[in-house]
Amino acid sequence: MQLRSYRDDFAVFEQAGAVVLAISPQDVDSHARWAEQEGFTFALLADVDQKVIAEYGLTAPIVGLRRSVFLLDTDGVVGWRYTGTIGAIFKRPARLGRLLATMS
User: Fold this and answer.
1) Fewest C-beta atoms under 10 Å: which of 16, 42, 43, 68?
2) What are the residues facing 55 on neighbouring strands?
């Protein structure tokens, strides 16, 4: 649902000049199939060894990892972060667009 909302409201990110990247521990082949099936036009990155997940402190007992959103500035510095404890809760594109506007 989260990535589908980003796909459906992608104009919000384009207007902000943002690059959207999604990352998860699934492999490249599964990402390619899913991206094609869902019509995602942004990159789905594979972190199969979970190094990035660990670096960002997103591992979670029982569920494996925490669903999160990071907004980085043009220097790659995290300007805003949301880490959910429940997978079904996420930040909608309109909210992220407003946050991106404050970062530029």
Assistant:
1) 43
2) none
> Rounded to whole angstroms, how far apart are CA atoms 42 and 44?
7
Contact assessment for residue 65 and residue 59, using Cβ atoms and an 8 Å cutoff: yes
Report the CATH number that the domain containing residue 18 is assigned in CATH.
Answer: 3.40.30.10
Domain count, the chain: 1
Nearest to 104 by CA among 11, 15, 3: 15
pLDDT in 10s for each residue of the chain, 104 residues: 788 999 999 999 999 989 998 888 999 999 999 999 999 999 999 999 999 999 988 888 877 788 888 888 888 888 888 887 765 667 789 999 999 899 86
Single pTM value for the model: 0.79
Give CA–CA dist 39/12, Å, rounded. Answer: 17
Task: Output the CA torsion sign for 47, 87, 12, 5.
Answer: positive
